[in-house]
Amino acid sequence: MNFFQPQMKLVAKTRRGAKVSKTFDTARTPYQRVLDSPELTQGAKTELTRIYLDLNPAQLKREIGRCQDRLIEIARTKPERRKEVRRSPDHPFGETFSPRQRSRTSLVRQPMDASRTS
Predict the structure, then answer these.
(1) Cβ–Cβ under 8 Å, residues 29 and 5
(2) Domain, as residue range, for 50
(3) Between the CA of residue 55 and those of 32, 44, 63, 67, 91, what are the distances in Å?
(4) Nearest to 64 by CA among 7, 19, 20, 4
(5) pLDDT by residue for the chain (118 residues), tens digit each?
(6) Within a 13 Å sphere around the CA of 84, how many CA atoms are in the beta-carbon half?
(7) Rounded distance, CA 69 to CA 74, Å?
(8) Is residue 40, in this structure, part of any structural domain at all?
(9) Residue 71: inside a domain, yes or no?
(10) How many domains does the structure of the chain reveal?
(11) CA–CA separation, 114 and 109 (whole Å)
């Protein structure tokens, strides 16, 4: 779909006190920007033009919609099975720490030495 959706790129942004003025170039599709690029070879430009002419934006939108509908249907019909995650008895944090200490944020220990700023 990026072949067909024009975008305005930011060219400049200037500030005068609290006022910010933005300057945009003309809206062009990524396809048009690539064709204007001097780094692209003529063979690559020809191949891109062939692909561009073969694409149908309406057909692409319909296909994307069908794929999204299929994903939603798969998510709806998926059985609701949750696995309970249990810590093994020999886990190093199993019995030595309280539930509060076992939380993800408290497992990162700070050095016990005095800092240079204290």
Answers:
(1) yes
(2) 10-14+28-76
(3) 15, 17, 12, 18, 56
(4) 4
(5) 677 888 899 999 999 999 999 999 999 998 898 899 899 999 999 999 999 899 898 999 999 999 999 999 988 887 777 667 676 666 665 555 565 555 554 555 555 555 555 5
(6) 2
(7) 9
(8) yes
(9) yes
(10) 1
(11) 14
